Amino acid sequence: xxxxxxxxxxxxxxxxxxxxxxxxxxxxxxxxxxxxxxxxxxxxxxxxxxxxxxxxxxxxxxxxxxxxxxxxxxxxxxxxxxxxxxxxxxxxxxxxxxxxxxxxxxxxxxxxxxxxxxxxxxxxxxxxxxxxxxxxxxxxxxxxxxxxxxxxxxxxxxxxxxxxxxxxxxxxxxxxxxxxxxxxxxxxxxxxxxxxxxxxxxxxxxxxxxxxxxxxxxxxxxxxxxxxxxxxxxxxxxxxxxxxxxxxxxxxxxxxxxxxxxxxxxxxxxxxxxxxxxxxxxxxxxxxx
Length: 289
Prior knowledge:
conserved putative lor/sdh protein from methanococcus maripaludis s2 fold, Elongation Factor Tu (Ef-tu), domain 3, CATH 2.40.50.100, 53% strand, signal
């Protein structure tokens, strides 16, 4: 009798182990058939479309250094590239009547042009040096009539410098009402440059809002799939990928405005969608930080 009971218990235990193993294998098989994807939700808001306009930097202030009288330079106190403060001595000049005068810096800044040399002659009609001030930088651009209108709608714009990978605030100081000989309108802006990172001759990209798509459904552009002249995304419903056709209203590098049978808050696939088909089972992966 005891042997029979033991045999029955053994059979039951063996059956349970086999059943558990089958369940684990089934779960593993189901996991293996699910496509791993990353997701986000559809947002609703305004999409700004920006236009790039290129401008060149110039020093706002360029000041000539003049001698009060013609004569011989007996002492030169600066070199090209030196930083000077207003009132610093630039040179000693002995005039034709034997008087010695000190030529001083009329403004603070950097000496960018130096014509004078010790023992040489200077006049009182031509600059012996030039000083530029870099704490404020001027931006010059020429724009089409359509682009000119964009400057009337704002007082400041972001100015991006690719060489530094930095963006600065540029204040609009002048927008011409008269086109130049090429039919373009001059525009001037200023940037505070206390650290003097921005140098004359650099090129900046001005970002101006050209239009706004209001109250639109917004998705990451990477979620879009274009195939056979059809544009669609995958919406996740009950762990399945549902192929959904959409119409693009405005496409930007990172964000796109769309319309279609979608709604704010819908979960959509942003990575892994290229291997999906309509109805594919998915496994949502958490994006690594």
